[in-house]
Amino acid sequence: MKMNAELDFQKRQSRRRWLIPGLFISLVVGACLGLALGSVQLTMQDLLAALTGSGQPVHEKIVMDLRLPRVLIGFIVGACLAASGAILQGVVRNPLADPGIIGVTAGGGLAAVLSMIVFPQFTYLLPASAFLGALLAALVVYMLSFDQGVSPLKLILAGVAVNALLGAVMNGFMVLYSERVQAVLPFLSGGLNGRSWHHLSFVSPYALAGLCLCFFAIKPANLLLLGDKSAQLLGLRVERTRFFLIALAALLAGAAVSVSGLIGFVGLVVPHFIRLLIGDDYRYLLPISMLGGGVLVVFADTAARVWFTPVELPVGILLACIGAPFFLYLLKKKGRG
């Protein structure tokens, strides 16, 4: 038994050593593909010339104004969603949790839809409103599941109910403002089409603040894995810490939703897969999940843009087609266990 545990620990250590450089290499490859592929195909020589300012003007326009901000936003969105999912999985102590399943994404999505179709004059406040919506949804779920402490099972059940309610409210507003629904459909599908430096500039402060705060969440998240009583004995204020982590997950999900729309399953698939490879230690799980989420969205967005030419498929649809079967597989595997 002891030998098996030591062997398992050594395997995880080995995976940690190659996973980080492997993901960095994958990110570089994904970024190059995202910049080079599209309706106008660029060679690596054309791409390097455009990035250094010595290429053809039309190539520089395509790379610098259209594709580069899209790749950067894709990485930020993926990192935020994966980090949010990893945090929530630790809070509820369930590897099948993610921002979409417990209502956080729906709260941010409802606030964003209201900003776009009810108060279009305040669209510049979209990131802030999406964060507030995600935070309010998280607080409602937190309060509904609180009974002398938060039960992880009640948290998930309350999240599912709130998610359904917010989805119904969102559909209701779309019916009332049916003449403006066309502007909201790309948001509901989840995509990065048309994203520019403007979108990057208004989402970056929220996203970077959340990603930086994640490093302060590593220690408390690890302590929560020990259980509430053990964490309290080690000096952790459990309920205050859980509230901070839920608020942080809401900030990350809200920032991602505000710029990309309702992209699902990244917060489920990436942290869960990374956890299977390297274990539950948040010193490695959280930063590697950020990197893995960014890589996944960059590759998926490029694939959604290139595979279905001349139609550009929203990346949220492609990720749902990947994530839903994976989620069902996890449920079946968990049920057998």
UniProtKB/TrEMBL annotation:
It comes from the Bacteria. SUPFAM superfamilies: ABC transporter involved in vitamin B12 uptake, BtuC (SSF81345). PANTHER family: FERRIC ENTEROBACTIN TRANSPORT SYSTEM PERMEASE PROTEIN, FERRICHROME TRANSPORT SYSTEM PERMEASE PROTEIN FHUB. One of its GO terms (cellular component) is plasma membrane. The keyword Cell membrane applies. It is a multi-pass membrane protein. This is Iron ABC transporter permease. PROSITE patterns: PROKAR_LIPOPROTEIN (PS51257). The keyword Ion transport does not apply. GO terms for molecular function: transmembrane transporter activity. Keywords: Cell membrane, Membrane, Transmembrane, Transmembrane helix, Transport. It is found in: Cell membrane. InterPro entries: ABC_BtuC-like, ABC_transptr_permease_BtuC. CDD domains: TM_ABC_iron-siderophores_like (cd06550). The chain crosses the membrane at residues 20-42, 71-88, 100-119, 125-144, 156-177, 197-218, 243-270, 282-299, 311-331. Pfam families: FecCD. Belongs to the binding-protein-dependent transport system permease family. FecCD subfamily. GO terms for biological process: siderophore-iron import into cell.
